[in-house]
Design a protein that fits this description.
It contains ten helices and eleven strands. By secondary structure, it is an alpha+beta fold. The chain folds into three domains: 108 residues, Beta-Lactamase (2-Layer Sandwich), CATH 3.30.450; 68 residues; 136 residues, Heat Shock Protein 90, CATH 3.30.565.10. The strands form two sheets. The protein has a six-stranded antiparallel beta sheet. A five-stranded mixed beta sheet has the order 7-8-9-11-10. A hairpin with a 2-residue loop joins strand 5 and strand 6. Helix 4 runs antiparallel to helix 5, helix 7 runs parallel beside helix 8 and helix 8 packs antiparallel against helix 9. The longest helix is centred in the middle third of the chain and has 36 residues. The chain is globular, with a radius of gyration of 24 Å. The C terminus is likely disordered.
Length: 340
Amino acid sequence: MIEFPEELFAVLESPLWLLDQQQSIKSKSQGALRIEQSYQLDIHRIIAVSQGESCARHPEAFICADCALNRHVSPAGFPFVLRRHDGVEVEFWGQWYQKDSQSLLQITLQQPVLAPAQSMFGYLNDAREAERKKIAQDLHDGVAQSIYSLMLETRMLKWLTKEQQSAQVKTIDQHFAEILRDVKNIAGELRPMTLDEFGLVPALEQFIERTYQMTGFEIDMTVSRHQQPLKESVRVAIYRMIQEAVTNAMKYSGTNVVELRLDFGESLEVTIQDEGIGFDDSADKLGFGLRNMKERAAAIAGKFYITSKPNQGTTLSISVPLIEHQKGCKEGKENEYLSR
């Protein structure tokens, strides 16, 4: 059970709400009081957003019937919008934890929604639409065309002799195998089965091989110490952050190779390093891709660091404590696999 003394909430500056099983508010911090005074706040709707029962952006269901963000959030970390009393929309990042009969809601101020290009929602929408466009193109140009060719080859069978039919059936069977491989490749890009069946490291090895085959970009991976069991949320978050880091390196570093290091101890230390053109990290201005990585790390109780200088490369570091994750695996709270 979550236990916080009432006097602690009186001095906490971070916006926090403690709720009981009926989701009635028992305690709230100083920061929470300021949020309630400044914004049109509905705690229960925010919790509904965290559980995928309400859209993160739109309060009216009919508006977000086809919203890319609807029902695509995790309680461990999710964006949402609140409207100030003067009508200005402001983005927040929420985290909702539940244990036994109590739950804890924490939110963090992001930035005003000035324009889609300046918004995390805009970034997430664009990323999801780009993903959908790629899938549609792969299905249309690859799978659909192959199936159409198979249809024509099958129709031709009736015009062939028995000897010719036997050879044609072998050809059709080969083409079916090629289509199956294409479908598996598309599915693997969306969510590699290896990540669930065998763990993080095998999934990364598969990702490294596929990246090299498709782009020629090299990822030099080193794994140190004995790999630990990881909860699904950690496996997925780390995998997606590495994907994002590699994509950024391919786009912006000007080099053709990155080093990827994973060190398993009391915490999982992940480092993605390139020797490319770098940038000035003192500007304190993260792009949405890097902000997304930072928030993914925060959602699994981890930390994200970036170090870069012009013409001196870029280093991204992710640190995730594993003690609680290991405890959860040993107690059988989730069905996990060793990331071997």
